[in-house]
Amino acid sequence: MATAVLSFSGCAATESLQNVSTDAEGEEIVEEEPAAEKSDGEAKEGSDDEALKRSGSEGIQPDDEVIPGDAQYYNADGTVEVITHSLTMPGEAGGEIVDFVTANYCEIEFEPEYASAHPELVKAVSDAMLKESDVKAEMAEYYEYAQEMVADSGDDFWGLPYCAEYGIEVLRWDDSMFVYRVSTYGWAGGAHGFGASTYYSFDVATGKQLDISDFIADSGELGDRIMDKLKKEYPDNEEIVNGEEYFSPLETIKSEIEDKTLDCAVYGDGLHVDFDQYEIASYAAGAFEVTLTAEDYGETMRDFCMPDGTGPLSQIVFYNNLEVEVIE
Fold this sequence. Notes:
- By secondary structure, the protein is an alpha/beta fold.
- Helix content is about 25%, strand content about 30%.
- The protein has helices spanning about 50-55, 110-115, 120-130, 130-155, 210-215, 220-235, 240, 250-260, 295, and strands at about 15-20, 30-35, 80-95, 95-110, 160-175, 175-185, 195-205, 265, 270-275, 290-295, 315-320, 325.
- The two termini are about 20 Å apart.
């Protein structure tokens, strides 16, 4: 597998100054003022900083927050590419060739220079990835189910493919942590499909995969605080508000905290906690997500977690969806 070599950089854009006045007929006249001279610390034409600015294929986007002078996330510090491989296994149904099974899997590839400097992180991320062989084995099993459905339904086969879909979204990447979320969806012939998501957090320096005990120093009250947030965010959900006995959400949450299996990550504005369908409430209730900010925990949130130092993600993370591969 070839490794994509990415190099990306950027810097803040400058704004021109304008004076707007009106002439005798009321038409606006726009007069450009000469741009202020750049200080010694700013990029000049022909300088190395200016070259870095020009090397970005997309440039800084209008809504991106750029901190002047803080370029560590835009140049040689690194970029990463999320590559999605899509697969399909076709078959014959009703005299036509249709998709029996579709699936995909993802890879995360760091820029070679960054990968060389952080081998532990790269290995840990690679080890956590779903492997191509596992996906194809799952597809083969689904394919047998699809053949049985075709045999049973004949020309009435409705053509909905069995599927095993995976997606990755990078959420944080700074000097402390590399964080992404894996979203999955599968359908294997049941009444409905099933979707889920899982956070993956890694210590950049050591490659260690992190869990709730690495984020919160004292998690004794965490379960109650998460329940308080859930009740506040989902006031109309009786299963959450009343703690329906069948699911016992608070008991489930506390158990996951103790077992260090709570699906959570620290990025953006705080500790994000996700619950999939069936986890703390019925399928019909859907999935749940709450965020506990750094202010909610103060000194109990470990120092390396906050603040999130990630720069504009569009400048350091690239997504590449490859063409669909047909498996005969």
